[in-house]
Automatic annotation (TrEMBL):
Record keywords, A-Z: Lyase, Pyridoxal phosphate
The keyword Lyase is annotated on this UniProt entry: yes
CC cofactor: pyridoxal 5'-phosphate
PROSITE patterns registered for this protein in UniProt: ACT
One matching Pfam family: ACT
Reactions accelerated catalytically: L-serine = pyruvate + NH4(+)
UniProt-recorded name of the protein: Threonine ammonia-lyase
Length: 408
């Protein structure tokens, strides 16, 4: 990739270092620890930057604070406005309250309730409008002009980018031997800042971006592709249809590649971080691990740094992700059996499952609403098994005893 010309170089290592000095006393230097278990699974040394442990559970407060500190006295008095699917909102709201600056946050319809409530808790006025970030952005522009508010952009602002880039400084300070950084991309502010700092400090280091397959906006912009953008993604924090102009220029120049990850891969990464690292990470924050798990050969033998960008995820959604992962692993399965409607049949199935070591979670005995003959009944079960191999053994036992069984 060609280097940016001096006129286009909007953020420098010096800017990132200045941002580090500005935020030093108010933003946590989060741990950057090696995960030996995940490293063994992925075939590399894996270092996790726990930005989900910030006070607002997101890295976004770095850039937000750097931008807020640069406001003029009159701008502070009038207040600020920001659009966000949640994490930028919390960063702006939290630090604006600390600094005594009135804050209005515009969030698109469908933003997770945990992010809305957390933002309100930080004292900001929250306005819910627009089906997408882009529609919310249009409202912000008009509202800011009407009320003379200063807009704090979530990613396309040199001060925001520099603030996010402080993560790169901290990661290389903690683990100088890093070979690769894997960073989620939404609008591009985080990866632009990290790449600016990391490439200046260690030019040989590779920076890999990750986007949700459903929202490959930066991938399209950089690679000249026209992949569609649609649907609900678990990684709503990086579901951005139009990346920033500043960030796109920096990504073209400094980022080595961009990978796309599916919803299944993101879900697996969220579940894996909970089960192995005992840490809660939202979909966008787990995208980096999703990429490494999906293509381990590309990272084999390397020292890889991942940014766990945030932990703001609804508990209901966590439960759904974990349950779905159990189903993928063959540990939780729904079965349907056609059995003869006579006494003892249900008990026979239950005893057989117990002898095979399976645990029954739910039972539904359906006589009326099925297309089976009148002397038959539909038995639906949810069972728990150790793994896929154990499930296959249980199914074989049922089939061997003459029960017609199928997974549903």
């Amino acid at each position: 990739m060609q280097h940016l010309s001096g006129s286009a170089q909007t953020v420098t290592l010096a800017d990132v270092r200045r941002a580090a000095a500005v935020i030093r006393d108010s933003v946590m230097v989060t741990a950057c620890n090696e995960s030996r278990t995940l490293g063994e699974i992925c075939g590399c040394r894996l270092f996790l930057k726990f930005e989900n442990l910030q006070f607002t559970a997101t890295f976004k407060e770095r850039g937000a604070l750097n931008r807020l500190q640069a406001l003029l006295p009159e701008e502070r008095k009038r207040g600020v406005i920001a659009m966000s699917a949640g994490n930028h909102a919390q960063g702006v709201a939290y630090h604006a309250r600390r600094l005594g600056i009135p804050a209005t946050i515009v969030m698109p319809i469908g933003t997770p309730m945990v992010k809305i409530e957390n933002t309100r808790r930080h004292g900001a006025e929250v306005i819910i409008t627009g089906q997408t970030l882009e529609e919310a952005a249009a409202f912000v522009k008009a509202h800011a002009a009407e009320h003379r508010l200063t807009q704090i952009h979530p990613y396309d602002d040199p001060l925001i980018i520099a603030g996010q880039g402080t993560i790169g400084l901290e990661m290389l300070d903690a683990v100088p031997e890093l070979d690769v950084l894997v960073v989620p991309i939404g609008g591009g502010g985080l990866i632009s800042g990290i790449a600016t700092a990391a490439k200046a400090l260690k030019p040989s280091l590779r920076v890999i971006g990750v986007q949700a397959q459903l929202y490959p906006s930066m991938y399209n912009a950089v690679k000249g592709a026209q992949l569609p953008m649609r649907g609900d993604t678990l990684a709503e924090g990086i579901a951005v249809k139009a990346p920033g102009q500043i960030t796109t220029r920096i990504v073209r120049d400094l980022v080595d590649d961009i990978m796309l990850v599916s919803e299944d891969q993101i879900e697996r990464a969220v579940a894996t971080l909970i089960s192995i690292e005992k840490t809660v990470v939202e979909g966008a924050g787990a995208a980096g691990l999703a990429a490494v798990l999906a293509a381990p050969d590309g990272f084999a033998g390397r020292n890889v740094g991942l940014v766990l960008t945030g932990g703001n995820i609804d508990t209901r959604l966590i439960a759904s992700v974990l349950t779905r992962e159990l189903a993928r692993e063959g540990r939780l399965t729904q079965l349907a059996l056609d059995i003869v409607d006579r006494p003892g049949q249900l008990a026979a199935v239950c005893n057989l499952l117990a002898s095979a070591g399976a645990n029954i979670i739910e039972v539904s005995h359906q006589r009326t609403f099925s297309d089976l003959p009148a002397k038959a009944t539909l038995l639906e079960l949810v069972i728990e098994t150790r793994d896929r191999a154990h499930l296959e053994q249980v199914l074989a036992r049922l089939g061997g005893e003459g029960f017609a069984v199928r997974e549903t």
